[in-house]
Recover the amino acids of this structure.
């Protein structure tokens, strides 16, 4: 069996770096037309160039995913560039790590409400799409109590709950909705690479919980997302898929 997403039109909300970038490139490599958005023009230009190397349609546009009007403008523009939308990947995070007003505000507006708003904006296009689906990116922090990052964890828990609600609401309209909950993922310029030097105790503590002796790679998350969007997952909806290498099995 082969994962086949050729001809799919994919929007990755939050796709210029890390997991989002890997998701966009995985879809592009597999033959999909892909649109990505983010705030940073430099990152968008880089990922657009990387997608172009696979020869398909690649679209990138700036979007502040904390802003409802920005999302409302981006989604139709992406649909126009791709000729429609078959897959929406909600990947944005504001990394609200503290237990303060700013962290709660950014977590709710980016991690949760960006997924809600992008889904609502994309739904009219998805309903005319080819085997449409939504894939929300949550986190292992949304599955367990999160003392270290309460705002982030709570927002991701809400995304997990929202995924199941979406799935129940949209199944009769032919739209599948699933969620991927990554564990600790390390990549250049990412949170865990920074923690390796700025907070080695925290980094080593998280690493010690990974039975394989390493953290995950963004590509390993992307592979699961592409599978969930493919015909091989045609009977999969309302599921929360942990991609964590067994993180937490050993302590």
């Amino acid at each position: 069996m082969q994962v086949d997403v050729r001809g799919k039109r994919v929007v990755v909300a939050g796709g210029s770096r890390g997991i989002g970038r890997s998701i966009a490139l995985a879809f592009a490599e597999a033959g999909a037309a892909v649109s990505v958005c983010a705030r940073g023009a430099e990152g968008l230009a880089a990922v657009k160039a990387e997608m172009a190397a696979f020869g398909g349609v690649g679209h990138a546009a700036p979007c502040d995913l904390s802003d409802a009007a920005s999302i409302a403008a981006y989604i139709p523009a992406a649909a126009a560039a791709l000729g429609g939308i078959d897959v929406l990947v909600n990947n944005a995070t504001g990394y609200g790590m503290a237990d303060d007003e700013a962290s709660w505000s950014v977590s709710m507006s980016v991690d949760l409400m960006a997924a809600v708003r992008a889904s609502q904006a994309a739904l009219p296009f998805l309903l005319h799409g080819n085997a449409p689906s939504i894939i929300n990116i949550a986190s292992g922090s949304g599955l367990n109590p999160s003392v270290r990052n309460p705002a982030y964890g709570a927002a991701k828990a809400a995304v997990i709950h929202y995924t199941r609600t979406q799935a129940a609401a949209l199944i009769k309209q032919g739209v599948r909705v699933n969620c991927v909950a990554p564990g600790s993922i390390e990549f250049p310029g990412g949170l865990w690479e920074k923690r390796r030097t700025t907070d080695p105790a925290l980094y080593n503590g998280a690493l010690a919980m990974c039975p394989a002796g390493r953290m995950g790679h963004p590509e390993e998350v992307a592979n699961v997302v592409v599978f969930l969007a493919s015909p091989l997952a045609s009977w999969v909806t309302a599921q929360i898929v942990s991609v964590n290498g067994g993180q937490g099995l050993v302590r």
Summary: The first strand starts at residue 9 and ends at 13. Strands lie at 9-13, 33-38, 58-62, 87-90, 133-137, 176-182, 240-243. The first helix runs from residue 18 to 29.
